[in-house]
Design goal:
CATH class of the domain at 69-213: Mainly Alpha
Strand content: under 5%
Radius of gyration: 16 Å
CATH topology of the domain at 69-213: Serine Threonine Protein Phosphatase 5, Tetratricopeptide repeat
Mean pLDDT: 75
Distance between the termini: 8 Å
Number of helices: 11
Structural class: mainly alpha
CATH superfamily of the domain at 69-213: Tetratricopeptide repeat domain
Largest sheet: none
Helix content: 55-70%
Shape: globular
């Protein structure tokens, strides 16, 4: 199932004027900020403020798969209002039935601690479910978490695998290019044996999730 939302999903879950908005931060180590930059077409690096990233993103919103529908859309609207408890209550039944957009949304809530206790472990659990359904944003987020050891031990082979999968899954050329660039950045830090291992993991994932590859 392809993601139906653009990078704006990420910025909304960050919060309309919430934590980090307007702060100067090192974006390279934050997968959420990296997705925001991808949606905005910004390069990563020090000195870029979160306000710049979010404002640029807001000016370039593009829906990938059309309008969201029903509880998914209602949860999105609730998250826009900062009502994360309602968003969670709407997304949770969908996520349990295997909806990757809802799974990703819940993962983002746990990542930021919006409406739930902040937990990278829970964020990882929900992101992994969405990623295994072929959800690009979840795959990219997992790649970043493994690259920087956020909530998991640093693992460049896993990071390379998830970035590689995201580069194939993304619905927009802009995001495919972004994921491929992150994969290549990680590859430059790896040995040939580690790269071979990452490629093997990607092939095994593809064999185990043939529907998610479509």
């Amino acid at each position: 199932m392809s993601p139906t939302i653009s990078g704006r999903w990420v910025s909304i879950l960050w919060g309309r004027t919430g934590r980090g908005f307007g702060q100067t931060t090192t974006l390279a180590a934050d997968p959420v900020a990296r997705l925001e930059c991808a949606g905005a077409g910004l390069r990563l690096g020090g000195g870029v403020t979160m306000r710049q990233a979010l404002l640029a993103l807001a000016a370039s919103v593009v829906m990938i798969g059309g309008a969201l529908a029903g509880p998914l859309q209602d949860g999105f609207a609730a998250s826009q209002r900062g009502d994360y408890t309602t968003a969670l209550s709407l997304w949770f039944p969908l996520a349990q039935r295997g909806n990757p957009d809802a799974q990703f949304g819940i993962g983002m809530l746990y990542y930021r601690g919006h409406g739930v206790p902040q937990s990278y472990a829970e964020a990882m659990r929900w992101m992994l479910q969405a990623a295994n359904e072929g959800h690009y944003f979840a795959q990219f987020t997992l790649g970043s978490m493994y690259e920087y050891g956020i909530g998991v031990p640093e693992d460049l082979a896993q990071a390379h695998m998830w970035f590689d999968l995201a580069a194939v899954r993304a619905g927009r050329a802009q995001f495919r290019t972004f994921a491929a660039r992150e994969r290549d950045h990680v590859a430059a830090l790896m040995t040939p044996a580690q790269i071979a291992e990452a490629q093997r993991l990607a092939r095994e994932w593809g064999a185990a999730h043939p529907v998610a590859q479509r």
